[in-house]
Write a structure and sequence with these properties.
Blueprint lengths: L9 H4 L1 E6 L4 E2 L14 E3 L4 E3 L3 E2 L2 E2 L1 E16 L25 E5 L4 E9 L4 E9 L8 E9 L2 E7 L24 E12 L2 E8 L24 E10 L2 E9 L4
Antiparallel strand pairs: 1-7, 2-3, 4-7, 5-6, 7-8, 7-9, 9-10, 10-11, 11-12, 12-13, 13-14, 14-15, 15-16
Length: about 250
Amino acid sequence: MRTSLVRLFLWTMSIAAVMTVATSTLTAQTTGKTFGNEVSFVTPPNLRLLSNDSINGKPAFDFFLLVKAKLNGVYDISGGLQDYETFNVGQIDVWGSNNENRFWMDMHQTQIRFRGQRETEAGTLIGYLEGDFWGGSKHFRLRHAWVDFKFIHFGQDWSFFGDKDIWPNVLDWDGPPSGVWRRAPELKFYFDVAEHSRFDIGLGSPGADVMYSSDIDSTVSAASQRMPDVIAAWKQTTSFGHLRATAIFRNLT
């Protein structure tokens, strides 16, 4: 078994340049990872269309576009991940003998974000679209596409089990080492049942990432799901942070 450092830490040895076309600084409300219902800026974005009219004390409409262009450079110092673009420990070929060094650069982590907000007499209508170029062969990949109105949220977003409020801000995509990063189509209903309590319930697209080998059992194969997942979550905010519990009901075929 060989020890492989494979890739230098991106945040210390890589070439990483982050340039935002719509220069702006987000407040801690969004933590810079993605946008939600509440967004505010220290410096307003340059590519922004803001209405001078107001409804319910807010601009009648507010649209903006953000582009985060990132140049990522990596040097594999002892081999093991020559065919990968991120430091995925589970993919290190520890039994292999290919110690070939490799340097490469890409801009696959470049992100495009578009958000629109429209005020109506009945409430606020919000739409959000986000993508990058991690779809393979430099193709565009859809990350988020959702619409939110009052207590209804539908589209592709972070899973019910994800909690972006606790994720640390990172420069690269190689950490933290664990977390729920799944994005899935969903229909969610959310309610503020008390001042510091929120309840979510809805339907999610079923799916599982399972690795199995036909060499072990040739009769094992993936089964198609026949019903959506029913998911519920409770979030309780306290003076020291928040607690979140999530449960799922899934039909196993």
